[in-house]
Amino acid sequence: MSNSITQLQYLMRCLRDKQFGCAWDKKQTYKSIAPYTLEETYEVLDAIEREDFEHLKEELGDLLFQVIFYAQMAEEEQRFTFDDIAAGIVEKMLRRHPHVFPEADITRFGEPTTLTEEQIAQQWQQIKAQEKAKGPTNNSLLADVPASMPALMQAVKIQQKVAKVGFDWPDVVPVFDKIREELDELEEAMKEQNRLHVEEEMGDVLFAVSNLARHLNVSPDLALNKTNIKFRRRFGKIETLVSAQNKKLTDCSLEELDHYWDQAKSEGL
Predict the structure, then answer these.
(1) How far apart (Å, rounded) are the C-alpha atoms in residues 150 and 146?
(2) pLDDT class for 138, splitting at 50, 70, 90?
(3) CATH number, domain at 28?
(4) Per-residue confidence at 269, pLDDT binned at 50, 70, 90?
(5) What is the torsional sign of CA 85, 86, 91, 97?
(6) pLDDT of 112
(7) Does the pLDDT of residue 259 top 90, yes or no?
(8) Is residue 225 within 8 Å of residue 45, measured between CB atoms?
(9) Does 139 reside within a domain?
(10) How big is the chain by its Cα radius of gyration, in Å?
(11) How big is the CA angle at 67 (ends 148 and 137), to the nearest 5 degrees?
(12) Which pLDDT tens digit goes with each residue over 103-118?
Protein backbone atom coordinates (compact mmCIF):
# COMPACT_ATOMS: atom_id res chain seq x y z
CA MET A 1 0.00 0.00 0.00
CA SER A 2 1.32 3.46 -0.86
CA ASN A 3 2.77 5.70 1.82
CA SER A 4 0.11 8.35 1.05
CA ILE A 5 -2.74 5.94 1.76
CA THR A 6 -1.05 4.77 4.96
CA GLN A 7 -0.61 8.38 6.06
CA LEU A 8 -4.25 9.15 5.23
CA GLN A 9 -5.41 6.21 7.34
CA TYR A 10 -3.20 7.37 10.23
CA LEU A 11 -4.60 10.90 9.91
CA MET A 12 -8.13 9.52 10.14
CA ARG A 13 -7.26 7.51 13.25
CA CYS A 14 -5.88 10.67 14.82
CA LEU A 15 -9.03 12.62 14.03
CA ARG A 16 -11.13 9.90 15.66
CA ASP A 17 -8.80 9.43 18.66
CA LYS A 18 -10.88 9.45 21.83
CA GLN A 19 -8.42 11.58 23.79
CA PHE A 20 -6.78 13.95 21.32
CA GLY A 21 -9.00 13.75 18.24
CA CYS A 22 -11.34 16.32 16.69
CA ALA A 23 -14.64 16.68 18.56
CA TRP A 24 -16.64 16.84 15.31
CA ASP A 25 -14.99 13.80 13.73
CA LYS A 26 -15.32 11.73 16.89
CA LYS A 27 -19.10 12.13 17.10
CA GLN A 28 -19.83 11.21 13.47
CA THR A 29 -21.66 8.02 12.48
CA TYR A 30 -22.26 6.20 9.19
CA LYS A 31 -25.60 7.97 8.79
CA SER A 32 -24.31 11.42 9.69
CA ILE A 33 -21.51 11.14 7.14
CA ALA A 34 -23.76 9.79 4.34
CA PRO A 35 -25.03 13.22 3.15
CA TYR A 36 -21.45 14.43 2.79
CA THR A 37 -20.65 11.37 0.69
CA LEU A 38 -23.46 12.25 -1.69
CA GLU A 39 -22.36 15.89 -1.79
CA GLU A 40 -18.75 14.94 -2.56
CA THR A 41 -19.93 12.60 -5.33
CA TYR A 42 -21.81 15.41 -7.03
CA GLU A 43 -18.83 17.72 -6.69
CA VAL A 44 -16.73 15.10 -8.50
CA LEU A 45 -19.34 14.99 -11.28
CA ASP A 46 -19.39 18.79 -11.45
CA ALA A 47 -15.60 18.98 -11.88
CA ILE A 48 -15.80 16.35 -14.65
CA GLU A 49 -18.56 18.26 -16.42
CA ARG A 50 -16.49 21.46 -16.30
CA GLU A 51 -13.36 19.52 -17.33
CA ASP A 52 -11.62 21.14 -14.37
CA PHE A 53 -9.07 18.40 -13.79
CA GLU A 54 -7.11 20.20 -11.10
CA HIS A 55 -10.33 20.59 -9.14
CA LEU A 56 -11.24 16.99 -9.99
CA LYS A 57 -8.06 15.80 -8.27
CA GLU A 58 -9.12 17.65 -5.13
CA GLU A 59 -12.69 16.38 -5.25
CA LEU A 60 -11.58 12.78 -5.74
CA GLY A 61 -9.45 13.23 -2.64
CA ASP A 62 -12.50 14.41 -0.71
CA LEU A 63 -14.44 11.38 -1.95
CA LEU A 64 -11.61 9.04 -0.99
CA PHE A 65 -11.62 10.60 2.47
CA GLN A 66 -15.26 9.53 2.82
CA VAL A 67 -14.21 5.90 2.19
CA ILE A 68 -11.38 6.23 4.71
CA PHE A 69 -13.85 7.67 7.24
CA TYR A 70 -16.28 4.75 6.89
CA ALA A 71 -13.43 2.25 7.05
CA GLN A 72 -12.09 3.78 10.27
CA MET A 73 -15.50 3.63 11.96
CA ALA A 74 -15.93 0.03 10.83
CA GLU A 75 -12.46 -0.91 12.09
CA GLU A 76 -13.24 0.64 15.48
CA GLU A 77 -16.28 -1.65 15.65
CA GLN A 78 -14.22 -4.62 14.39
CA ARG A 79 -16.47 -5.00 11.33
CA PHE A 80 -13.93 -4.62 8.51
CA THR A 81 -10.88 -2.57 7.50
CA PHE A 82 -9.79 -0.49 4.54
CA ASP A 83 -7.66 -3.43 3.43
CA ASP A 84 -10.80 -5.59 3.44
CA ILE A 85 -12.53 -3.04 1.22
CA ALA A 86 -9.65 -2.99 -1.25
CA ALA A 87 -9.28 -6.78 -1.25
CA GLY A 88 -13.02 -7.19 -1.78
CA ILE A 89 -13.18 -4.98 -4.86
CA VAL A 90 -10.06 -6.62 -6.33
CA GLU A 91 -11.63 -10.06 -5.86
CA LYS A 92 -14.92 -8.89 -7.41
CA MET A 93 -13.29 -7.29 -10.45
CA LEU A 94 -11.13 -10.37 -11.07
CA ARG A 95 -14.24 -12.54 -10.88
CA ARG A 96 -16.24 -10.29 -13.20
CA HIS A 97 -13.50 -10.06 -15.84
CA PRO A 98 -12.55 -13.65 -16.69
CA HIS A 99 -11.92 -12.51 -20.27
CA VAL A 100 -9.11 -10.30 -18.92
CA PHE A 101 -8.01 -12.41 -15.95
CA PRO A 102 -8.61 -16.13 -16.78
CA GLU A 103 -9.95 -18.06 -13.76
CA ALA A 104 -9.86 -14.79 -11.76
CA ASP A 105 -6.06 -15.04 -11.62
CA ILE A 106 -4.36 -11.63 -11.83
CA THR A 107 -1.08 -13.25 -12.84
CA ARG A 108 -2.70 -14.51 -16.05
CA PHE A 109 -3.36 -11.00 -17.34
CA GLY A 110 -2.42 -10.70 -21.01
CA GLU A 111 -3.61 -14.11 -22.14
CA PRO A 112 -5.72 -13.71 -25.31
CA THR A 113 -9.50 -14.31 -25.23
CA THR A 114 -11.72 -15.67 -28.00
CA LEU A 115 -14.92 -14.17 -26.58
CA THR A 116 -16.83 -11.57 -28.60
CA GLU A 117 -18.04 -8.31 -27.06
CA GLU A 118 -21.59 -9.71 -26.93
CA GLN A 119 -20.41 -12.89 -25.20
CA ILE A 120 -18.47 -10.81 -22.68
CA ALA A 121 -21.62 -8.79 -21.90
CA GLN A 122 -23.65 -12.01 -21.44
CA GLN A 123 -20.95 -13.44 -19.23
CA TRP A 124 -20.98 -10.28 -17.10
CA GLN A 125 -24.73 -10.61 -16.52
CA GLN A 126 -24.39 -14.31 -15.65
CA ILE A 127 -21.68 -13.57 -13.09
CA LYS A 128 -23.74 -10.79 -11.50
CA ALA A 129 -26.76 -13.11 -11.35
CA GLN A 130 -24.64 -15.73 -9.58
CA GLU A 131 -23.42 -13.13 -7.08
CA LYS A 132 -26.97 -12.01 -6.42
CA ALA A 133 -28.10 -15.60 -5.81
CA LYS A 134 -25.54 -15.86 -3.00
CA GLY A 135 -26.83 -12.73 -1.27
CA PRO A 136 -29.77 -12.24 1.14
CA THR A 137 -32.95 -13.95 -0.06
CA ASN A 138 -35.43 -11.51 -1.58
CA ASN A 139 -37.27 -12.61 -4.68
CA SER A 140 -38.33 -9.13 -5.74
CA LEU A 141 -36.76 -8.00 -8.99
CA LEU A 142 -36.32 -4.53 -7.50
CA ALA A 143 -34.88 -5.63 -4.15
CA ASP A 144 -31.36 -4.45 -4.92
CA VAL A 145 -32.36 -0.97 -6.11
CA PRO A 146 -31.40 1.27 -3.14
CA ALA A 147 -34.35 3.29 -1.85
CA SER A 148 -31.88 6.01 -0.81
CA MET A 149 -30.62 6.46 -4.39
CA PRO A 150 -31.44 9.92 -5.87
CA ALA A 151 -34.98 9.81 -7.23
CA LEU A 152 -34.28 10.24 -10.96
CA MET A 153 -31.41 7.77 -10.86
CA GLN A 154 -33.58 5.31 -8.93
CA ALA A 155 -36.40 5.66 -11.48
CA VAL A 156 -34.03 4.75 -14.34
CA LYS A 157 -32.62 1.82 -12.36
CA ILE A 158 -36.14 0.50 -11.72
CA GLN A 159 -37.04 0.87 -15.39
CA GLN A 160 -33.87 -0.94 -16.46
CA LYS A 161 -34.67 -3.82 -14.13
CA VAL A 162 -38.25 -4.34 -15.33
CA ALA A 163 -37.22 -3.90 -18.98
CA LYS A 164 -35.08 -7.02 -18.68
CA VAL A 165 -38.23 -9.10 -18.11
CA GLY A 166 -40.11 -7.46 -20.98
CA PHE A 167 -42.04 -4.78 -19.03
CA ASP A 168 -41.08 -1.99 -21.40
CA TRP A 169 -42.18 -0.27 -24.60
CA PRO A 170 -40.46 -1.51 -27.76
CA ASP A 171 -39.52 2.01 -28.92
CA VAL A 172 -39.63 5.66 -27.90
CA VAL A 173 -42.92 6.67 -29.59
CA PRO A 174 -45.33 5.40 -26.88
CA VAL A 175 -43.10 7.01 -24.24
CA PHE A 176 -43.93 10.44 -25.67
CA ASP A 177 -47.61 9.47 -25.58
CA LYS A 178 -47.25 8.48 -21.92
CA ILE A 179 -45.66 11.83 -21.06
CA ARG A 180 -48.53 13.68 -22.73
CA GLU A 181 -51.02 11.50 -20.84
CA GLU A 182 -49.32 12.23 -17.52
CA LEU A 183 -49.20 15.97 -18.27
CA ASP A 184 -52.94 15.94 -18.94
CA GLU A 185 -53.54 14.17 -15.63
CA LEU A 186 -51.33 16.70 -13.84
CA GLU A 187 -53.34 19.54 -15.35
CA GLU A 188 -56.58 17.93 -14.16
CA ALA A 189 -55.14 17.52 -10.65
CA MET A 190 -54.23 21.22 -10.63
CA LYS A 191 -57.84 22.10 -11.44
CA GLU A 192 -58.94 20.06 -8.42
CA GLN A 193 -56.55 22.10 -6.25
CA ASN A 194 -55.64 18.89 -4.43
CA ARG A 195 -51.99 19.25 -3.40
CA LEU A 196 -51.45 15.53 -2.72
CA HIS A 197 -52.92 14.60 -6.09
CA VAL A 198 -50.78 17.24 -7.82
CA GLU A 199 -47.68 15.85 -6.12
CA GLU A 200 -48.60 12.32 -7.21
CA GLU A 201 -49.18 13.34 -10.83
CA MET A 202 -45.98 15.44 -10.85
CA GLY A 203 -44.11 12.31 -9.78
CA ASP A 204 -45.72 10.37 -12.63
CA VAL A 205 -44.60 13.04 -15.11
CA LEU A 206 -41.02 12.91 -13.84
CA PHE A 207 -41.02 9.10 -13.94
CA ALA A 208 -42.25 9.15 -17.54
CA VAL A 209 -39.65 11.76 -18.53
CA SER A 210 -36.87 9.73 -16.91
CA ASN A 211 -38.14 6.74 -18.91
CA LEU A 212 -37.81 8.79 -22.09
CA ALA A 213 -34.23 9.66 -21.11
CA ARG A 214 -33.49 5.96 -20.64
CA HIS A 215 -34.89 5.10 -24.07
CA LEU A 216 -32.70 7.85 -25.55
CA ASN A 217 -29.69 6.49 -23.63
CA VAL A 218 -29.35 9.79 -21.73
CA SER A 219 -28.79 10.10 -17.98
CA PRO A 220 -31.59 12.39 -16.71
CA ASP A 221 -29.43 13.40 -13.73
CA LEU A 222 -26.50 14.43 -15.90
CA ALA A 223 -28.76 16.08 -18.49
CA LEU A 224 -30.51 18.13 -15.81
CA ASN A 225 -27.17 19.00 -14.22
CA LYS A 226 -25.93 20.35 -17.56
CA THR A 227 -29.07 22.48 -17.82
CA ASN A 228 -28.51 23.77 -14.28
CA ILE A 229 -24.96 24.78 -15.21
CA LYS A 230 -26.22 26.47 -18.38
CA PHE A 231 -28.92 28.33 -16.45
CA ARG A 232 -26.38 29.54 -13.87
CA ARG A 233 -24.13 30.79 -16.68
CA ARG A 234 -26.90 32.66 -18.49
CA PHE A 235 -28.41 34.11 -15.33
CA GLY A 236 -24.94 35.30 -14.32
CA LYS A 237 -24.84 37.21 -17.59
CA ILE A 238 -28.23 38.75 -16.79
CA GLU A 239 -26.89 39.90 -13.41
CA THR A 240 -23.85 41.45 -15.12
CA LEU A 241 -25.98 43.29 -17.69
CA VAL A 242 -28.40 44.59 -15.07
CA SER A 243 -25.55 45.70 -12.82
CA ALA A 244 -24.00 47.59 -15.75
CA GLN A 245 -27.22 49.62 -15.89
CA ASN A 246 -26.84 50.46 -12.18
CA LYS A 247 -30.07 48.63 -11.50
CA LYS A 248 -31.20 45.75 -9.33
CA LEU A 249 -32.85 42.61 -10.65
CA THR A 250 -36.03 43.56 -8.80
CA ASP A 251 -36.10 46.87 -10.69
CA CYS A 252 -36.47 45.07 -14.02
CA SER A 253 -39.64 43.81 -15.63
CA LEU A 254 -39.94 40.23 -16.80
CA GLU A 255 -39.72 41.52 -20.38
CA GLU A 256 -36.38 43.21 -19.64
CA LEU A 257 -34.99 40.10 -17.99
CA ASP A 258 -36.16 37.97 -20.93
CA HIS A 259 -34.37 40.37 -23.27
CA TYR A 260 -31.13 39.98 -21.32
CA TRP A 261 -31.65 36.20 -21.30
CA ASP A 262 -31.97 36.17 -25.08
CA GLN A 263 -28.80 38.25 -25.30
CA ALA A 264 -26.91 35.74 -23.13
CA LYS A 265 -28.28 32.92 -25.25
CA SER A 266 -27.27 34.63 -28.50
CA GLU A 267 -23.71 34.93 -27.15
CA GLY A 268 -23.56 31.16 -26.83
CA LEU A 269 -23.73 31.11 -23.04
Answers:
(1) 9
(2) low
(3) 1.10.287.1080
(4) confident
(5) positive
(6) 87
(7) yes
(8) yes
(9) no
(10) 25
(11) 45
(12) 889 999 998 888 888 8
